[in-house]
Design brief:
About 85% of the residues lie in helices and about 0% in strands. The chain contains six helices and no strands.
């Protein structure tokens, strides 16, 4: 790999991890709050310590996927980049809605849009780089689980 490619890969991973760090700003204050502690949680919710490592890995995989698409010599990639940007923004928005604004119902509605955006991004990436799409599949799987979890949290805590 050329030095320029290493820098590009590092930048793509940093971009995605940066979204995670930004989301962490909303999460940090709420996870240890009375509000979150008092939420009724479904029996299938994993321990809190799982979320950080899982998301760190998923953001890294997203960055590598973006790099693989950028590396391909093909034109017309603007829709792919737009789709990727949309899902990144929606990813951050979920954290703001759930942890920042403490609105599980809004986070549930939003995560459905996020899930659809990830599907679109994965399909578009598949057309350019199958490996890039494959690297997004754990993200899609985890977001599918997160959708169920968010829905359960909303249902269990709606008044």
């Amino acid at each position: 790999m050329k030095f320029r490619e290493i820098i590009q890969l590092a930048g793509d991973i940093a971009l995605c991890e940066g979204v995670g760090v930004a989301g962490g700003l909303f999460t940090a204050g709420s996870v240890n709050s009375e509000w979150y502690a008092n939420l009724r949680k479904p029996g299938f919710q994993p321990p809190g310590a799982i979320f950080g490592p899982v998301w760190t890995l998923l953001y890294a995989l997203m960055g590598v996927a973006l790099f693989l698409v950028q590396k391909k010599k093909s034109g017309g990639k603007a829709p792919l980049y737009r789709a990727f940007a949309v899902q990144l923004v929606l990813n951050l928005l979920w954290t703001l809605l759930f942890f920042g604004l403490r609105r599980p119902w809004a986070a549930f509605v939003e995560i459905i849009a996020l899930w659809a955006a990830i599907v679109v991004t994965t399909v578009l990436f598949w057309r350019v780089s199958r490996w890039a799409a494959i690297l997004l599949m754990p993200y899609l799987a985890w977001t599918s689980f997160a959708t169920l979890l968010t829905g359960a949290l909303w249902r269990l805590n709606s008044r």
